[in-house]
Amino acid sequence: MLVQLKNVNKNFKSMQNIVFSLNSINLEADKGEIVTILGPSGSGKSTLLNIIGGIDRADSGSIIIEGVDLNKLNDKEITKYRRNNIGYIFQFYNLIPNLNIYENIEVSTNISENPLKIEEVLDGVGMLDKRNKFPQELSGGEQQRVSIARAIAKNPKILLCDEPTGALDYKTAKEILNLLEYVNSKYKTTIFIVTHNTAISRMSDRIIRLRSGEIVENIKNNNKISAKGVEW
Amino acid sequence: MVMVLNKKIKRVILSQKAVYIGSIILVMLSSLLYTNFNISMKNVEKNKNLFLKITMIEDAKVITQKPLENISELENKFNVLIDERKQLDVNINSNTVLRIFEKTEKVDISYIVEGKNIESDNDILLDPNFAKANNIKIGDYIELPFGKFIVKGFFSMPDYIYPLKSDTDMMVNYNNFGIAILSKNKINEINKGINYYLIKYKSKDSYKIKDYIAENNFIIFYQDIKDNPRYSFVDAKLMGSTKMGSALPVIILLLTSLLVCIVIWRIIKTEFSQIGTLYALGYTKKEILFHYLSYGNIIALLGGVSGTILGLIFVKPLTSFFISYFNIPLIENLFDIKYIIISLLIPYIFIIPAISFVTLKALRLSPVNLMRGNNEIIKIGILEKKINITKLKFISKFRIREVTRSLPRLFVLIFGITIASMFLLLGFLYKNSIDYLLNQSMNEVYKYEYNYVLKAYEDDNNYGGEEYNLSAFKVENKIESFAVLGIKPDSKMINLTDESGKSISINSVIATRPLSNTLNIKEGDKIIITNKYSNKKYEIKIDKIAEVYTGNNIYMPLSDFNKIMNLNENSFIGIFSSNKLNIDEDKILKFETKKDFEEAFKTILNPLKASFAVISLFAFVISLVVIYIITGISIEENKNNISMFKIFGYTNNEINSLILNTATIPVIVGFLISIPLLIKSMDALFRSFSKGIDFAFPLKLEPLSIVLSFIIMIGIYELSKYLSKKKILNISLSEALKSQRE
Ligand SMILES: Nc1ncnc2c1ncn2[C@@H]1O[C@H](COP(=O)(O)OP(=O)(O)OP(=O)(O)O)[C@@H](O)[C@H]1O
Ligand SMILES: [Mg+2]
């Protein structure tokens, strides 16, 4: 088991009141799996993803990644965990505007112990010819491709995608899904995809549904289809 | 409507506290400098004028062959005041001369600075600087050849504001020369010294008295007050300081307004969509502009007011500081309201156009473009596209991108560091230059230890040492006089060198560097010089300029000098010697040791040290503020990126190194630029105001000083980096998660 969450709780408080909480979350994911996390807005999807990514801390419970409990790590160790294991794809790409495409990828290879070749990754996402362009010169879909390239270039074990297609049109969104599937099969990366879009779950191995901070559904998808077949 | 908008000003300012405080400090510094310098200078000037008025300064001094008769008749006829005054020099010890004047009632009245006026014939008044230098206090007794006197008070006298011993001297030396006043009775009783008349004009035609006296009596000596260096040097010396006092604040304000530009532009950029919305809602450009102007209002107001107040507080010490160079009393502190008003307005004059410029730049965009955010405006600069940095390491690439991202910011950073470094280097430049100058003069040029000037020309030197000849000259339209020395062509006592440091043999006419600055002459120029004693004119050609930094002198071979002056071939009046000579006291007019000269020089320069300490403090504040603000903006702008770096697993140290070290190269560049710039500007400054001072500034900056300044500058840089670290630490990881593209 690559990822294992046991009884994870997380509260957000304002003053004295708890405004939101993730309650006793249990889930597991194997190496190479694609996991989709579904749920309405405010149900805690991003919070859960961030806890897995070591970006946010749980209040209690254990988050065991390859046998190591994240909740027992100090800040330095958790930074190191993120550095070596996590790739992150944002809804709004978050490319650095004054770096060109190639340099944006270097942002992540720069701190990686065994990065992939940047040219190879760029080629994989179909952006090699745009390597000297700057983010503003690219369309949204192209920027997200670069963002994926950036995330996988450091060769992470886990790829976290928060609404990766949220800002994209249908056609571009599908290209991005294809790309994620390609990354998954080529590098055996475990991918967590947070989405509003239920259709996307059809390409995943495991579907988790959240409501008000609780897992209301956690199933293995036995009818997994390829990204090409996903329609909405 | 606008009121609603203005509510957010406070919030924005609080969120950018450091930036605001920094800008306010810079404005404060410049207002402080401006008010302080200008009001103090004005104060000095006004006090000087008041003093001259109270003390009835003479318009001319005249020595006649026969005493003037019917003084009151003359006074009426020419509408003048005439006072008779006796003066005599007394040797207090072998090296110190006290010049004693008779107390006058109508013209050149002595002004009591401290203590009381003369009441009895055994009372004496002293020059306060002389008293201080010789450790004499009010109530002390001093012994003179004709009696014992009690020091009743300290005084100033308008025709001796700058108490030079002789007209041809260039520097005062309070250790060796002072002035004093005795009662009329006492002076008449002593009945020695010279007697002359002080004339004060009361109408336009009063000057005609000169012709009248010349016809009816005989004029031995006549001097207009403006030809009296003891009076006219003051203006020349104050000029330079005034120039500095108005230039510095302007430079700092310029820097501040550039900085404010950048800060406001940054605020505006984050508020593009708001501006667009307001615009679309029907707010006018004017309303939006006024809103942003109020950001600057706070800086200009707080900075201007606090700076002006601080400036006023320091008026008194600075005035005293300047006045202490001269013998002018501080009669009252006169604050010129004009400068206070200007000082309060100046920050606005700089900041309002600056803010208007950036605001209007944003308002030129259409509301739609503004609302869409700023992506229209983040264009990739040609520079960014063009520079080829693919080969570099990522860290360097990132820093280069960061630095070149905003050229205005880069410019302000470099400009700020350049200014601050110049301030910082100034103190070192000063010290190195003085050290060099003293060392050169004392050890390399003037090889003698003792210098004797005799009362009369002699032909045979039986005293030993090396004889020379000397006379004082001036040129038309210049108040400064200078000495022409005839010295032995193979002189062992004076070693003049040229630019390359090679000795110049004395077989031609050589002027010193300070004299060439004063008279504005270069090698090959012909000048007409007038002898101060005989009034005869001579034309001489300057063959060479010697790189000697002290002394307003012209050197020529002794035999040439004597030929020109119509003296005997071997005539001399002075002797340089490396050991003490046995010369009859009565024959000596003046005797000085090299040590005296060195001491006098040092005392004159000492007070400047304090001002360099203050300037260094300015350097510190300016560079800290500039680096801190620029780094702060850089962090602010990179907030999202920093947060993302954190998510990616960059350690804090790595992020600090990426973001904070981007300024390293600009800081170094700014520092390097400052060195030639400082030397150039100081050269110009000294050229303009060292006229009349009998030393030139060699402007030396030792490598060690440069290294030290550099270390200090890097220290300040590290300090501001250290202060910024917390800001980076405080950026949360979620920043990148929630934010839209910026
Ligand atoms: N740092 C925080 N402090 C306080 N409350 C927070 C914080 N972060 C998230 N929350 C709250 O936790 C709840 C879950 O947020 P989360 O971002 O996980 O939802 P989500 O499922 O990702 O929603 P969306 O689909 O809109 O992105 C929300 O109600 C949110 O207001
Ligand atoms: Mg979310």
UniProtKB/TrEMBL annotation, chain A:
InterPro entries: AAA+_ATPase, ABC_transporter-like_ATP-bd, ABC_transporter-like_CS, MacB-like_ATP-bd, P-loop_NTPase. Transmembrane segments: none annotated. GO terms for cellular component: membrane protein complex. One of its GO terms (molecular function) is ATP hydrolysis activity. The keyword Nucleotide-binding applies. Signal peptide: none annotated. Residues 3-232 form the ABC transporter domain. The keyword Nucleotide-binding applies. Keywords: ATP-binding, Nucleotide-binding, Transport. Belongs to the ABC transporter superfamily. This is Putative ABC transport system ATP-binding protein. It comes from Caloramator quimbayensis.
UniProtKB/TrEMBL annotation, chain B:
It is a multi-pass membrane protein. GO terms for cellular component: plasma membrane. It comes from the Bacteria. Keywords: Cell membrane, Membrane, Transmembrane, Transmembrane helix. The chain crosses the membrane at residues 12-34, 247-268, 289-315, 339-363, 410-430, 612-635, 655-679, 699-719. It is found in: Cell membrane. Residues 248-355, 614-732 form the ABC3 transporter permease C-terminal domain. It holds the Pfam family FtsX. InterPro entries: ABC3_permease_C, Membrane_comp_ABC_pdt. The keyword RNA-binding does not apply. This is Putative ABC transport system permease protein. It comes from Caloramator quimbayensis. The lineage of its organism: Bacteria, Bacillati, Bacillota, Clostridia, Eubacteriales.
